[in-house]
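Q: Got a minute? One more chain.
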Amino acid sequence: MTELMPRSERVDLRMTADAKRTLQRAAMVANKTLTDFLLDSGLHAAFDTLADRRTFVLDETQWAEFMALLDAPPAANPRLRQLLARKSAWEA
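A: Always. Here it is, folded:
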């Protein structure tokens, strides 16, 4: 996930010694530098956070089609119906 371009920006972080040790251990286990680990993890979290906030633009025809699809009843899915009809493990 980390870019291959040269890095020119800097971010300074303040954290507890325990937090730093934990991050260093995680980076080591992931076979990454602390910087790469923090950047990859931070970008992943940022993309997840932003995923629900992306916008898309539709013209009137596309919007009508989109709304029709949302309003249409779901297609029959026997496997899903069977799964949902099963009792939970703690109910069995």
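A: The mean pLDDT is 91.
Q: Perfect, thanks.
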